[in-house]
Amino acid sequence: MKHRTRFIEICGRALLVLLPIVVFALPTSVFAAAKKSSANYDSMTLPQARLYMVQLINIDRSKNGLRPVALDPIASLAGQKHSDKLLALGAHSHWEPDGTKPPQRYNFVGGTDYVAENFAWYGASASPQKPDPKARFSRASIAGLESMWMHSDGHRKNILDKYRTHVGVGLSQSQFGISVVADQEFINKYGNISRIPYKAYRGTRVHVSGTLNSGYRVQCVSVTREDFPRRMSVSELNSTYSYGIGTEQIANYFPRDMSVSSSGFACAIEVKPEWRPGLYYCTIWAETGAGEKIPVSLLTFYVF
Fold first, then answer.
1. How far apart are CA 19 and CA 21, in angstroms?
2. Per-residue pLDDT tens digits for 103-133
3. How confident is the model at residue 10, as a pLDDT?
4. What is the pTM of this model?
């Protein structure tokens, strides 16, 4: 079995998350045998396989004294779109061909919480393969994915992050189960954050608002920037390692800079004329009653 792991690290106050990609290859004989006999595979539907993945995640979290996570439908939609597309392309990456990354994909389908991704390709090779819309997943393959993630430091940290509350699961399988592409989209859901426009223009404002669960209060709204996404070839996608969320620190808004009440908060981000065009990330940080600071939302918008 060939094993290649790619790690992502993020540091700095603006946001601290980057996650690995794992690609596993199995002997060709395994897949030849699979073609001959479906007895090697269970018969879980996609919804059943997702729930089984969540069950395994929660077993690992329970062993480490952590609360369970719940399956999130919006994050699952984002993960499924990504796994389907990359299986069809024969690519392994946190990026997609249009240059978008996990936070944007999650925002595009309506997600507004904080998201962090685990991604894996399990199969003979990263070659273009048509996703099977009627795929039946084996417990062995799902358990194998969770096991290899738990034996990879970056993935393990994501699975065992104590602040995770939900997870989205994307699972795509080619015919005969030759390859399985999997996404875990971990979510920090600590309130209800409003969506923001995907585009903003210099000299205007972007309004961010929401409510937080009892026991949490807004601590900071951080804005970072990076260049516009660019289109990427399959070879470029396969050469990627980690993704970031803007390394250029632009602005920080604290409670004194926004409207804060017991029922929520509202922050007006001033898109200044001197801001350079690009992709901007808005991270909302919350503080717990114990003084811990956690990211509870990650929103993206383009500035023109």
1. 7
2. 999 999 999 999 999 999 887 666 889 999 9
3. 28
4. 0.86
Strand 191-193 with 248-253, pairing: unpaired
Whether 279 and 300 have beta carbons less than 8 Å apart is answered as: yes
Structure tokens at 119: 């991604």
Label the pairing between strands 166-173 and 70-71.
Answer: parallel
Would you state the structure tokens that stand for residue 108, as one six-digit string? 């595009």
HEC string of the chain? Answer: CEEEEECCCCCCCCCCCCCCEEEEECCHHHHHHHHHCHHHCCCECHHHHHHHHHHHHHHHHHHCCCCCCEECHHHHHHHHHHHHHHHHHCCCCCCCCCCCCHHHHHHHCCCCCEEEEEEEEEECCCCCCCECCCCCECHHHHHHHHHHHHCCHHHHHHHCCCCCCEEEEEEEEEHHHCEEEEEEEEEECCEEECCCCCEECCCCEEEEEEEECCCEEEEEEEEEEECCCCCCCHHHHHCCCCCCCCCEEEEEECHHHCEEECCEEEEEEECCCCCCCEEEEEEEEEEECCCCEEEEEEEEEEEC
Average pLDDT, the chain: 87
HSE-up (13 A, CA, CB side) for residue 183: 35
| Contact criterion met (CB below 8 Å) for 99 and 91 | no
Task: Tell me: pLDDT of 64 over 50.
Answer: yes
CA distance 43 to 171: 14
Cα–Cα distance for residue pair 40/119, rounded to 1 Å: 24
The answer on pLDDT for 172 being more than 70 is yes
**Res. 7: pLDDT tops 80:** no
C-beta of residue 203 within 8 angstroms of C-beta of residue 140: no
